[in-house]
Amino acid sequence: MIRLNLPSAPYDIALEHGVTVTVRPCSTAIYEAARSKMSRLVRDIARQREEAAEVGARLEGLPDLTDDDQRAGFSQALFVTALAQAAVTAWSGVLDADGSPAPVNDVTVAELMRIPAIAERFAVEYTRPHADLVAEGNGSTAGQNGTIPAGVNTAAGAPNKTSPVPEANAA
Question: Could you tell me the superkingdom of the organism this chain comes from (predicted)?
């Protein structure tokens, strides 16, 4: 059973370094649009890298997406950035290079999400209402071995009348 009490109005998330962002509530549409954008960008960059390599162009600035770890890290960074670009509507504590309050737009949001501590905290806090909903809806808990639901043992153990190993015949 789950309780449908997800945020329905914009709310604030306190991030690292005195930054606070105001966000739209996380919806399936926002989440899936961010995933779609991330996938498209990864495909586009992989294609650009292949095309550059085919003509002998320098590959500086393009990540090596054939490496599983780099691809996963780069994909996660793109996903969090796309999620923030879709969600953040206002902020405080973010200044431009001149020390003036930075405007909220795709470029400045992407710059903010390049700070690992900010991006990680944003991803966790923005998706927390959904994670909490899933956790609340899971009426079963993991067993001690962490794999199966645990419950009260209502059956007594079966008696062991025979040996599990055949006994050798005495000769």
Answer: Bacteria
Identity of the amino acid at 38: M
Q: Would you state the pLDDT for residue 29?
A: 94
What is the b/e burial string over 116-129, where b = at least 16 CB atoms within 10 angstroms of the residue's CB?
Answer: eebbebbbeebeee
**The total number of residues written for the chain in this structure:** 171
Strand-pairing partners, residue 95, are: 101
Query: Comparing C-alpha atoms, which of 92, 90, 78, 87 is closest to residue 129?
Result: 87
Q: What is the pTM of this model?
A: 0.71
Let me know: does 7 contact 25? Beta carbons within 8 Å: yes
Cα–Cα distances (Å) from 157 to 149, 153, 154, 160, in that order, read 19, 10, 10, 9
* pLDDT confidence of residue 162: 64
Q: What is the pLDDT of residues 121-146, one digit of tens each?
A: 999 999 987 676 666 655 555 555 55
* Strand partners for 88: 23
Helix runs in the chain, H state only = 28-54, 68-87, 106-113, 116-137
